[in-house]
Design goal:
- Helix content is 38%, strand content 14%.
- It has helices at 20-29, 45-54, 83-100, 115-137, 161-170, 182-188, 192-198, 225-235, 256-260, and strands at residues 7-10, 34-37, 58-63, 104-106, 142-145, 176-181, 203-208, 241-243.
- It has an eight-stranded parallel beta barrel.
- Helix 2 links the parallel strand 2 and strand 3.
- Helix 1 (20-29) packs parallel to helix 2 and helix 3 (83-100) runs parallel beside helix 4.
- Bound molecules: 3-hydroxypyruvic acid.
Length: 265
């Protein structure tokens, strides 16, 4: 296995000209051996596993069910009004993670909207995330939380790294880490490399995309991914990197950057 961080294809954002189950073949044909599926729930878990096995792909990450995406839900963890739905979402996430042999589950925070949800968001979020970290630990699954910048998802509860560290410091499961997405980090506080180094002990997974258009790492934008991948590799070459970017943004429709930038499939 070559040195350097491995890259997983996000099958909800890449190969979107194909139905989800056919994206596994497209990812494998492009050279990927790892995939992440943020929202796998449109297909039965066994069908996804069958597609992955057929193309010798491993799942690196799924999200817990985020609520009704089309109705504007972006996760449930901070919503007092959705506490039962959140607990049920963990059971579904565990079922899928086990079926897919996936070891990481991202818990999305959600967008508190009602006055009562807003008033109770921080306490609800902390309680739910700590519950999830402990429950996932019982199934040998790592619990991840991802600060998301306020421009991409306005109103999203978890929108900076101080909030994430506050919950991590309250948690005693030893099973709660940050999903560090450089696309969000740049827009949350910049200092993408410095923040990575500062939080390295608490980071469990990386995601990447170019800023501001959320295109591939070799498309034009604010971030120099030659530098960022060298920083990631210098800090922890074991971190998996999720290629979570919009396909079709920018001229190139290739994954040459994976080799060109000293990371690998
Ligand atoms: O929107 C993102 O960046 C996510 O990773 C959601 O899972």
């Amino acid at each position: 296995m070559p040195a350097g961080n491995r890259v997983a294809a996000n099958l909800n954002m890449l190969f979107t000209n194909l139905p989800l189950l056919q994206r596994y073949g497209a990812a494998a044909a492009a050279g990927f051996k790892l995939v992440e599926v943020s929202i796998p729930y449109s297909e039965p878990a066994n069908k996804l596993r069958q597609a992955a096995d057929e193309h010798r792909l491993e799942h690196t990450l799924i999200n817990a069910p985020p609520g009704n995406w089309d109705q504007g839900f972006r996760g449930l963890a901070s919503l007092k009004s959705e506490k039962e739905a959140f607990r049920n979402s963990l059971d579904t996430a565990i079922e899928y993670a086990r079926a897919l042999d996936c070891k990481r589950v991202h818990i999305m925070a959600g967008i508190p909207r009602t006055a009562d949800d807003v008033a109770h968001a921080s306490a609800t979020y902390s309680e739910n995330v700590r519950f999830a970290a402990q429950k996932l630990k019982e199934h040998n699954l790592l619990c991840l939380i991802e600060p998301i910048n306020k421009y991409t998802i306005p109103g999203y509860h978890l929108h900076n790294y101080e909030q994430a560290m506050e919950v991590i410091n309250q948690d005693d499961s030893q099973n709660l880490k940050i999903q560090y997405d450089t696309f969000h980090a740049q827009q949350i506080n910049g200092q993408v490399g410095a923040t990575l180094r500062r939080l390295k002990e608490h980071i469990g997974y990386i995601q990447v995309a170019q800023v501001p258009a959320r295109g591939a790492c070799d498309t034009r934008g604010e971030l120099d991914y030659h530098f960022i991948f060298s920083e990631i590799g210098a800090v922890n070459a074991e971190w998996v990197i999720g290629a979570e970017y919009l396909d079709g943004v920018g001229a190139k429709e290739s994954f040459g950057w994976v080799i060109e930038m000293a990371v690998h499939f």
